[in-house]
Every structure is written in C-alpha cells, then in structure tokens.
Amino acid sequence: MPTLETPPPLRTELPPPRAEVPPVPAEPGAAAAEPRIVVRDFDLWYGSQQALKRISLEVPSHSVTAIIGPSGCGKSTLLRAFNRMNDLIPGVRVRGEIRVSGVDVHAPSTDVVELRRRVGMVFQRPNPFPKSIFDNVAFGLRLLGLRDRGELEARVEASLRRSALWEEVRDRLGSSALQLSGGQQQRLCIARALAVEPEVLLMDEPASALDPTATARIEELALELKSRYTIVVVTHNMQQAARISDRTAFMLVGELVETDETRRIFTRPRQKLTEDYITGRFG
Amino acid sequence: MSRPRPDSPARLVPRPPALRRRLWNAAAQVACWLAGASVVLPLALIVWHLLAKGLPSLSWAFFVRLPKPVGEPGGGMANAIAGTLVLTGLGALLAVPVGVGAGVWLAEYGRGRLAALVRYTADVLAGVPSIVVGVAAYGLVVVPMGRFSALAGGVALAVLMLPTIVRATEEVVRLVPHSYREAALALGAPRWRAVQQVIVPSASAGIVTAILLALARAAGETAPLLFTALGNRFWSLSLDQPIASLPVFIYDYARAPYEDWNRQAWTGALVLLLLVALLSALLRLAVRRLPGRS
Across the interface, do B188 and A121 touch by the CB < 8 Å criterion? Predict the structure, then answer.
C-alpha cells in the first residue's frame, strides 16, 4: 500500500505481541493529536439510494466513539465503510475519503484483506465459527500464516484474557464455541478480532442480542480495551453510548448531525435535533 | 375452562363445542400417524421380503466364493460385491470433486449466465433416465476403448451421481449463515480462504449427506451398467476389464430358469441393501465428527 504517511507500517507479518499490562497512551512517535480515523465528505449509495451524505468525522486514537441514531440512519453503513464490509453488497458506490491510520480505505491500491486485519469488527449477533474455542481465536492468526503451536497458544490466551473470557474457557479450549452462552460467544468474537492485533475495533451494536449482565460485561470490556485500541461502537442504546464512549456522533437519515464529547452531547447538544433525539422526542 | 362473560369480546368469536374440537384433534393425530407409518411401511415390507427369501441362502461362502457354473449348486458373489464397491467408488471418485466443487461455486460465486447454464444442465441431467446415461457411456467410453470395462461403468455412475451432488451441495452451502462469511472476511480472510476454511466446513455435514444420497442411488443402478461394466463371472478388479456388480448379478440371476440362481438373486438383493445401509451408517457416523454439529 503506497499511501502511507503516518507511522504504523502496514503489516504483512505479525507484530510482536504487545506488553500485557501497561496501556499505550498513544503510538510512540506519532503525533498524539493525529486522529486514527478521518472521514471527509463521504457519500455512499445503495444503487440509486443515498445512504450516507457528506459525512465528515474524526475518531481519535485510544478512545471509544459511539455512533447513535434511529434505525436506518446509516450508522451501521458508516461503520462498515471503515473496513469496507459494504463491498459485499452489490451496487454500493462511494465518494469522498476515509483514512484509517493515514491509509485511504477506498483507494484502488488499498489491499482490503490487509485493511480488515488492521480494522477488526464485532457484529450485532455473536457469530463464532462452528469450530472449537481455540480455533476461533486462532483463525486470524492462521490466516497470517502462524503455524507454531506454542506461539498460537500464547496469542490465543492473551486474546482471551483481554476479552475477559480466559478464566471461563481455559479448561475447554477444545470444545465447540457454539456451546458458550450468547455473552461468552460475543466476548469470544472480540477475542477473535483482537488476536490479529488490529488498531481499530468496530462494534456494530455488540450487545443488542445480549441480556443485561452480558451487556454490562461487554461495556466494561470496551472501556478496558480503549487503552490499547481505537474503538468505534454503533448503538441504538443511548444509555450505553453515555456509559462507555468518550465521543458521540449523532446521525439522522444519512447525515451526521452532530459530533462532540459524549458529556456535551448528552448535556448541552448544539443541535436541536440532537436534543430532541436524546430526550426521546423521536427515534 | 371459564365461560366467557356475556360482555367479553371472546363471545363474538363462535367456538366449536369442546367435544367436536377434541374429535378433530384425535382424527388429525391419527391421520398424521398413518401418514408417517406409511412412509416406513414400504421399506419394512421390502426388508421383510428380502429377509424371508434371501436369508436362507446367505452364508459366508456367498461373500467369499465366486459364482459356480450352471448346474453346480452353491458358489457366491464375492466378485459382484467387490465389483459394486469398485464401481461406486470409482463413480464417487469422479463425481465428488467435480460435484462438490461445482456446488460450492454455484452457491458462492455463481452468478450470471454460466451459473444459470450449470444449474439448468444439472437439473436436466438429473432427469435423464439412467439407461440413457448407460447408452451415452457406451458410445463415449466402451466404443473407443473397444471393450466393456469397469471404467465405463464408473463413468456412467459418476454422471448419475453428479447432479444430486451439485444441487444438494449448492443448497447446503447457501444455508451457511451469512454471518460466518462476514466474520471470516472481517478477520482479513480472502474470499477463497473464507470459503475453504469456514463455509465449506460448516456445510460439510450436509455435503456428506448429499454424497451419501448419490452413492446409495448409484450403488443400486442396473441399467447403466448393462452395457458399460457388462458383468463378469470371474474375479476381476481391473478397471479396463468387464466387472461384476450386484445389481447386474441380481438382474441375471432373477431371470434365469434355475431355482438355485433365483434364490441367490434374493440373497444378492439382501446383501446390496445391507451394503447401502452400512455405507450410510458409516457416513453418518463420520458426519457426527465434523464441525457444525454441536
């Protein structure tokens, strides 16, 4: 990939595992002010229907950014533009620019496979593969060509610890992932995404299919993980956005209405529309 | 049950009396039960009949001996049993890679004209009578080779197995939840790796079932073997020589004017049935060990 200005070089091989405990405040050397994701005048069409209109947004590193808005406002579409999952849908066209760590996501020269390794994703419904717990987490690592058993085991364990699942599954790594509860499955999916050391973790309503206890655990996890990753979470649950995010973006019918610090969005929004939505007047 | 109060809206819906409702329920249950039972009945009758007629002649010799010349009693069908295994094995060897590959392609990549053509061809092929397939294999393999052969029989059986495998594989691969696909791609898997490592393994139980159906069908085919594999009264496993098979053996012996041969035909039929049942049991056992079944 040629369009690379900012530090973290595109990896074709695995990076060394990061130290477990100390949180990384910012990429050393990188300007701390440089946002991880920059969206500029981004439009997206499904066929002739425009789903995103002139979106401009910045996502700072090592933070949790929430995208909120009523159903159909385009928040998931925007999220899926960050790792080009919209490519799977026929008839999608885009205009404008999205940069992740400086790399133009939609540039023809961008390797989408490499991009997705750097931008992990967790979906609305837990979707572990019908494989063992171990093989689920190891999936991405094996894709990268990692074969060494000891290395695989170390990384799988590290990922499971980070997703706060290790203690629950350490004795049954070989059993099917489908036997886990919904909340455990979702944490497994997070571990699976973390195993390949992404820079960004996208979460598309990660708790909407879970019960309150499991939801709380996912939220805690998001808070823990932001020291290490940049997290963007789509949610239709405003309390959740308020609880876990540093910044909140409010979207409505394909447009970004307002984006600001979460505290501000929920207390003194600048836009009347935001206030109406937050106070439950529509949506 | 409490009676609805006169002012309750439930009164507006006329209710059949409880007795009538119960009778209907009982009648419907009996009807369902009968329908279920009548599915089992034909198979039960076949098995019972085969056991009654075939079991008396069933002996160890039947599995290990070769057929005796006319007039001599006894002998077995070792060559036909081995031949059926060779023929269906060869058919599967030819049809499974192509069929599974085509099915996966149709489900995952198949769009546009070529896919429509492949689907249509598979459907037409499924409707071609097996004897026609035999004639075609005769023309395409037997005539150029200059003799009947196991190979020609295997080709004919492969053609018969192909459409079942293609279409059933396509169906089961389509059933793999889209979320698996998304998850694999979101992890940075190239499309083909997602197909190879997640989608096909997830569908493997269904694919094996598809192969099994095709195998069981092919193992009992007679018509396409008559002028391809022909039959052989001697022991032969060579692919370029005529080979014996249970269905052809049964066909010949059942028509023969010798009582001993007729008895052996029944036994052959019983063995064929057991072979297919055994095959399907083994494959099902194998399927249980595959992922996606927990």
Answer: no
